[in-house]
């Protein structure tokens, strides 16, 4: 016992002292914590956070919840047709975005094009991503009128910016050896892309396209609220007329559709990607 205590004291005596955090680092951490608190408090008041309102308006929420628990499928055929229109908006918005995103994604990758080309294309794609599809929908509604075509154009522009970014990141992560081999045999730039780049990125591109299609189905349901066609227009009408039972039925149709698409997409990924 005494021997073990002696060994322990000897070992403790040889251990280096614990590291001391510099005063500047501690002050910086305190400043960062204080700044975080200030930002959170500022955001709390700017967002008009009022948890007491949930208690005060509990009666209204109970009434709304009771109506939503009794979905009304009287007009199920109208909901079905509108959901098909929503799917059509998402399909064409995604397809056009993928078609445009392939060349734009390649031109955004600085490992296959000059830096000045990639920089310019990326900034344009940044603008497409920065503006929400709802804003694009309002713009195109003013240009081409109410309806699904405005929704397709809105999804097309916004999704092109997203898809081009994802595609370019996949291109920048490729193994350069196949491209260099094609270049060494005298291949053209287009041959380098077709035979050296595309085989490496195609599975990722397909996965990204499927993901964006799923996302666009959800976005297309919202575009109808501003007049971009699809089931969102009917949902907006039912909510504004306080027909919450019908609104609940519409939400169920949307949830079932999105769930089925998610399962289908998952099967496609497992089988073909």
Give the fraction of residues assigned to helices: over 70%
Q: Characterize the largest beta sheet: strand count, sense, and whether it forms a barrel.
A: none
Output the structural class.
mainly alpha
What would the principal axes of the Cα set say about the shape? extended
The total count of helices amounts to 12
Percent of sequence in beta strands? under 5%
Q: How many extended strands? A: 0
CA radius of gyration is: 28 Å
Give the rounded overall mean pLDDT. Answer: 85
Uncertain regions: pLDDT < 50 for 5+ in a row?
none
What is the string of helix and strand elements? HHHHHHHHHHHH
Oligomer: single chain
- C-alpha end-to-end distance: 64 Å
Structure description:
This protein is an all-alpha fold. 81% of the residues lie in helices and 0% in strands. The chain contains twelve helices and no strands. The chain has helices at residues 2-14, 23-46, 52-56, 58-68, 76-107, 115-130, 133-144, 148-172, 176-184, 189-223, 231-240, 244-272. Helix 5 (76-107) crosses helix 12 (244-272). The longest helix has 35 residues, at 189-223. It is extended and about 70 Å long. It starts with a helix and ends with a helix.
